[in-house]
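Let's see one such:

===
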Amino acid sequence: MTDTKLADDGLSLNRIGLYAVLLGLVVFYLLPLEAGIVTSFKSIRAYGQTAPFLPAVDGFTLAQWSSAVDQLSGSLFNSVLMAVPATVFSALFGSMAAYGLTNIDWRGQVGIYVLFVAGIFVPYQAVLVPLKRFWSQWVPLHIWLEPVWYLTGLGTDYAGLLALTITHIAYGIPICTLLFRSYYKSVSDEMVEAARLDGASIRRIYRRIILPLSIPMFAVTLIYQFTQIWNDLLFALIIVGPGDASVITQSLIGIGQSESVTNFPLQMAAAFVTALPTLLVYIFFGEQFAKGVTA
């Protein structure tokens, strides 16, 4: 009886210790987030008078959020203009490539798949100089598509944004292909074979069978790709550069800074404005994302 009671007490103590550690980790993770949110609703004066994680004594203000939206509106539009097609096309092309590598037998299939996998592990830093030369000298879109920039009134700066979009599509295809290929391995071969016996073409099988079954994995790849592309700064700095076509991560670099003081509340508001689209994408595709991850 005594041993059982001690064992129960020991188990309870272990659980209490575990919950205490978990609670500490949650607080450690959420405290900076809470401090950032609270700071974004403060004025510069209130920020200097109170601790970062405490609300302002004189109440909250939306001035920093309004200023952040005003300053980031142009680059926010550019990021949407770049990230949405880059995300959709990289996922779609990855799905097509995975279908060709999984359900179609052809010579050189393994070698091509190895190249796709190798593309995932190429660090971006290793291709920055070739990419810069490729878009500025070998494929100068600002010259080749000059009539387009003139007719649309966008300006040649948007040639860099188009180049950035194409770059993200190309570098997103390998990881999307790997994800879709793993998913298509679980698709019933009998279903595809039955469609072939009925005379369905490769294109029809993909459109009528594979594509509808791929919705959960599309949610996974869309969320992953959009998050990576939206938060990218390295490619944007190298390919786009400063100008009217700057994306939102570029605009974050200098926001809230002046020679006299740094506006931390404005920086926090701008950071949350930047993060909001990725959160909305996850909320929209969250249910399908869970299905795709557990598939």
About this structure: The first helix runs from residue 2 to 40. The radius of gyration is 25 Å. The chain has two domains: 2-49, 72-294. Residues 2-49 form one domain.
